[in-house]
Amino acid sequence: MTENSLTTVHVAVYDTLADWEIGFLTAHVNSPAWHKSPGRFRIRTVGASAAPVTTMGGLRVLPDLTLDELSPGDSAMLVLPGNEFFPTEAFHPYAAKAREFRAAGVPVAAICGATGGLALAGMLDEHEHTSNAKEFLEGLGYGGDALYRDEPAVNDGGLITAGAQAPIEFARAVFAELGIYEPGVLDSWYKLYGEKNPAGFYELMGA
């Protein structure tokens, strides 16, 4: 295990990436505010190639590295945002990398369409999971419908899934898996952003 495995969260980037689904996650992983160990974590982007990609919101992103260059031993987690190409062969390299991460015991977090890509790859057949809706995954013909959970986000042994409507719960599940915040601080973070309760702000200021 290298030093980077303790610090780097890799976010897959590709054309049609759904920007809003990972905004809370990336901003708060990369920011040391309220972290249990400030400066321990950072975000790095990974693409199928080194070419720039364009998100659904029209932002152009230049990947920091390629999938071929990414080793699970150098990562704390692989994050797969939602996208519009998950049912195509273009998503296969990302699903293959996710499978490699899980085989190595490194967490993977997928939201929205990316959960569909993992379902098509058979990665949700034996794990509790969620997505945009049960019908969304059933329409893909996957074999894990008995393990579907109607919850905003689910973490089954380091495989985190969430629906497009739950970016804050998705971020909270990632933070909990990585141990970024003390439990009480994470509760206050969710109180502020998830419950829209201003008391969470004052609790965080005192943390």
UniProtKB/TrEMBL annotation:
Domain DJ-1/PfpI: residue ranges: 9-175
InterPro entries, A to Z: Class_I_gatase-like (IPR029062), DJ-1/PfpI (IPR002818)
Keywords from the UniProt entry: Hydrolase, Protease
GO biological process: proteolysis
Keyword presence, Transferase: no
Keyword set includes Nucleus: no
Protein name, per record: Putative intracellular protease/amidase
Taxon lineage: Bacteria, Bacillati, Actinomycetota, Actinomycetes, Propionibacteriales
